[in-house]
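Hi there,

I know you've been waiting on this one. I reran it after we fixed the sequence typo, so this is the corrected version. Both the input and the resulting structure follow.
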Amino acid sequence: MAKRSPILAVGEFAPDFALTDQYGKMRNLSEFLGKWLLLYFYPKDNTPGCTTEACSIRDIWDDFKKLGIEVVGISTDSVESHKKFAEKHNLPFTLLSDPDKEAVQKYGVWGIKSFMGKSFLGTRRTSFLINPQGKIEKVYEKVNPQRHAEEVLQDIQALI
């Protein structure tokens, strides 16, 4: 199995990408320049941890908006899967489909995972807080889906 590439580090410029959102629109990282951005990578739509993480962001969405933070979730699921996931859980933020693994590889979050004694390739639950200049301010590895949204809010409040 292929090893994952190194994860990006604080201070590096976040790599641009061109991915399709849940509405079929092509989106680029560069369109978020000038704003704080939480770019979060997650394994799969409608799984328990991914649903918990997405809904915890949704539940404090007003706090994110008050602070001017944009949120973008990325997984390798299809556009249609993202659309159903967003509609089912009333997610107010962008979900991007990365079926060719462009972004997950650029950000170093694609690699070998283990579950119940089996190894497989997949997306590691990792987030990047990106500043308005496009640089990575914080990397969150091994994200706790229940606490992640609050953790990001506390961190951004300390930074702005």
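Quick highlight: The first helix runs from residue 48 to 59.

Best,
R. S.
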